Amino acid sequence: SVALASMVVASQAASALTVGFSQVGSESGWRTTFSESVKAEAERRGIDLKFSDAQQKQENQIKAIRSFIAQGVDAIVVAPVVETGWRPVLMEAARSRIPVVIVDRNVDVGNSRLYVTRIAPDFVDEGRKAAGWLMDATGGDCDIVELQGTVGSSAAIGRMEGFNEVLAEYPNAQIVRSQTAEFTRSKGKEVMESILKAEGGGKNLCALWTHNDEMALGAIQAIKEAGLQPGKDILVVSVDAVDDIFTALKAGDVNATVEMSPHLGGPAFDVIDEYLKGKRDFEKWIVMDGEVFTQQNYQAEYNKRMGAE
Ligand code: GYE
């Protein structure tokens, strides 16, 4: 029975999956939680995870994917920084018969057979939800500053599209300034400072719309330093629902955020398991949904998160 037990152990070890994960970077709290969640999930499942942080550079992601292919991993998970430029490297993975799962942002490859599926929210819908909340809150009369995410990322492209689509229905609402702050807190503060200066201090602004919470958290600092009250003088709406934004909701500095789950690792590993067992007919997009949290309804979720720490 000792021999039997060791055989069982050996066969388990032999069947352990090796998965390469190319992550965008660590630009936001949302991203860090996402990375931690993928690592924890891999550990829980006994997956040998090769984790690579691309520091927001596509060239680093392409290098990482090539090295995963060279190492002969069983599957590759990619959270792409931008949409374009993925075709050649995904074709290399396909030629090596290594399945690729896309998570979070999208790839524009013109041939969806180059990946198994994509697990992600509907970014356009997130933008619509943010604008819907703001138009309700202001009666559709509002001069808005927009802080965009990384240029060329589908998160920024989609959120912008959805927000503007709703805004088009309100003749008295408009975006008066729009600039990228690259999804980071420090850029959010810096860019907001310069916008407030350009806007004569910002007293005539109605709202700030940011493509993620991290930029909102930086920008509310800038608003305070300019002598205005974020959440009152300038309404603040964003996307992600990271832990820190709940503190800001409670403090009244932020008004609303559209939730995006960072727990994409579990669903990605499920897909890989199914694929390796022979399944081929996957939906090309597995859509994750999220709630809108506001100063009126954040409390229950806040308690849940703080209690969980
Ligand atoms: O909203 C932001 C992050 O791609 C959806 O990237 C993601 C975005 C997320 O850094 O915080």
From TrEMBL:
It comes from the Bacteria. Transmembrane segments: none annotated. Residues 19-279 form the Periplasmic binding protein domain. It is found in: Cell envelope. Pfam families: Peripla_BP_4 (PF13407). Residues 1-15 form the signal peptide. Its main location: other. Keywords: Signal. Belongs to the bacterial solute-binding protein 2 family. This is ABC transporter substrate-binding protein.
